[in-house]
Structure formats: C-alpha cells, structure tokens
Amino acid sequence: MLKRTAWWSEHKIVGLLLLLVAGAAQAQAQGVGHLLQGIDFVAQPGDRVLLTLTLSDTAPEPNVFTVEQPARISIDLPDTAIALADAHRQIGVGDVDRVDAVEANGRTRVVVALRQSAPYQLRRDGNKLQIEIESPVAASVGPVAEIAGASSISNVDFRRGEQGEGRIIVNLSNPQTVVDVHDDNDRIVAVFKNTSLPEKLTRRLDVLDFATPVKYVDIKRDGPNTELIVTPSQGANFDQAAYQANGEFTLELQPLTQAKLEERKRNEPQYKGERISLSFQSIDVRALLQIIADVAKTNMVISDSVHGDIAMRLQNVPWDQALDIILRSKGLGMRQQGNVMMVAPIDEI
C-alpha cells in the first residue's frame, strides 16, 4: 500500500512538471513572456480576503478595472499565458465568490466575482500579485489601483482659472502615488495613499473670496495616508475633474451657469450601459478601448491610426459614457454597424 501511494505521488509530480513544461513551451511558441502558475487565497480578519497570483517571473504591470453590476474586479496581465491545473477557483469567503482566468491575444484576464462591490488594494511583490479585498462595511473608501511606494507632499496650491474654475494643485515626490477620489456627502475627498504631509501644510484654506465653486480646502494626515477635503460653496453647480501628470495632482471644480445646465439637459446623451470604474495612470488607448468592448460585450474594429497612451480615472460610470469620454479626449469618432463598433480618428470617420 505504501508503494502504491508513492507511485501515485510520483506520477502527480511528474504530471505537474509536464503541465509547467507544456505551458512554458506554449508561451515560448506564442512569444509570451510570463506564465500564471497559481491562484491562492487566505481569509483574514474583518471578512477580508487576500488573493495571491503567482507568476513564473517578475509580475507584469497589470491593468485593473471594476464593474458594479455584476460586481467584479478584472485584472489584465499583458504578455502572460495560463499554466494552471484549473483556471476556475471557487472561493466563497467574505464577498469573494470565485476567481476565473482566461487567456486571449497574448494576455491573461483574471476576473474576481464578488457578491457585492467591495474596495480592494493591489500590489506587486516580485513574481507575486496580491489583491486584498476588504469588506464594504469595514472600509470607508472605494477601490483603488496599485499601491505605489512611499510618497510625500511638498506643496498644496489653489488657483482660479480664467473661466472661474477652482483648481487645487498638489505636488508629489512620487509620480506613481495612488490617489483615490470619492464623494463624501456634499464634500469631495482625495486620499493620497501611503503619503506623508509636513506639519506646516496641515491646514484649512478659506478660498471663498476667489469666487469659484470651492469654499474650503482642508488637508490633513490620516494614518499612513493624507486626505484632501474640498467643501464646495453652498448651492454651487459644477463639473468635477481629477487628473495626474508626473508629480502633480490636480482637482478642478468647473462652474456651470444656468444656461449651461439647461443646454446640457437638452443635449446630453442618456447613458444606459453597465457601470464601470477605470483607474490608469498610463494605458495604451487601444487596450483601453478593448476593455470597453469586453464590458459592452460587443465587437470593436480599431483603426491603425489610433495610437498613444491615456491617463484615465473614472468611477462608477456607464461604459457608454466612459467610451464617449475616451473618444472625445483623443479626437476619435465611432460608427456603429450592427453589433460592430468602428473606432477611428474623426477625420477618417
């Protein structure tokens, strides 16, 4: 009986080795540089779940996006093939239902199916990619992208734009600092992850006299993070924009006149697509359009003239609105033919 058990164990090891060798050969034949070799999870206190993706070598820079309904986190691993015994893993812990991996066009997508939308943190550590999914009850902020290295804030400035917009500019020592922007009742909160703040910058800016939609700007430490809290003027109508370039983060409140509000009501498209959150400091615009097509479950043909990178931070918006924003920001147009979207520069369309 002992010999029989040893025989089975030996053949299981041989089978796993053959699986890895076959996966490596397939990856080499396809010109793919990484192999996804493991998906593991650990339950943690507070209904949190730590997922660990193990790769054959240093984990690539992932592209991450979320969908609200059905709730899921999608992690795209470029230049990666699957070398798993089973690409489908049932979890059933906390808010995590299961994890599925699928490979196509030289990339692997890992989809974390959730019972409800939940905040998460994602970090790379050598050949491992770790996703910590928190309980929505225990966490007070929305999902964020990959945790960057330690950062510090060197200056916070407020400026009034030519059109009356209130512009808060934060200078960061680390250009890769992760910033999570969300609404908190009537205020706008920007959380700078793993970022320190000098004592001299801990203060309130009273900017009501600048005649913008902004009344107060508060900046303070919150554990390892720094919070920027913007209180709009009472009754102000405005558009909100947040963007990050190099070591400068800008949060802008753009005033809306009554005429603009009425015009927008008449002309603004009614978006009805599945809601999605996108947070990329830099992503190839073709890859971003492919993500939109995947969420929309439609076919997309992208002109060879479409190229370049884009920084995008959208939270809980319909996918068709996200597509419209991407097209307008890159000077692109879209034509629909049946269930096929054709995307090209406006001149070509």
Offer a few descriptive terms.
single chain; 349 residues; alpha+beta; 17% helix; globular; disordered N terminus
Describe the structure.
The protein is an alpha+beta fold and 349 residues long. Helix content is 17%, strand content 50%. Strands 6-7-8-4-3-21-23 form a seven-stranded antiparallel β-sheet. A five-stranded mixed β-sheet has the order 5-1-2-10-9. Helix 3 (285-296) runs antiparallel to helix 4. Residues 1-29 and 139-148 have low confidence and may be disordered.
Rg, nearest Å: 23 Å
Contiguous helical run count: 4
Number of strands: 25
Q: What is the ordering of alpha helices and beta strands?
A: HEEEEEEEEEEEEEEEEEEEEHEHEEHEE
Bin the strand percentage. Answer: over 45%
End-to-end separation = 72 Å
| Sheet of most strands | 7 strands, antiparallel
Briefly note the structural class of the backbone.
alpha+beta
Which bin fits the share of residues in helices? Answer: 10-25%
Morphology: globular
Task: Kindly report the spatial arrangement of strands forming the biggest sheet.
Answer: 6-7-8-4-3-21-23
Mean pLDDT: 81
Uncertain segments are: 1-29, 139-148
How does the SSE layout of this entry go?
Elements lengths: L1 H28 L4 E11 L3 E8 L7 E5 L4 E7 L1 E3 L5 E6 L2 E9 L2 E8 L5 E6 L2 E6 L17 E10 L5 E7 L6 E6 L2 E6 L2 E2 L6 E4 L7 E9 L2 E8 L5 E8 L2 E8 L2 H10 L7 E10 H12 L2 E4 L6 E10 H11 L2 E6 L2 E6 L4
Parallel strand pairs: 1-5, 11-15, 22-25
Antiparallel strand pairs: 1-2, 2-10, 3-4, 3-21, 4-8, 6-7, 7-8, 9-10, 11-12, 12-20, 13-14, 14-18, 16-17, 17-18, 19-20, 21-23, 24-25
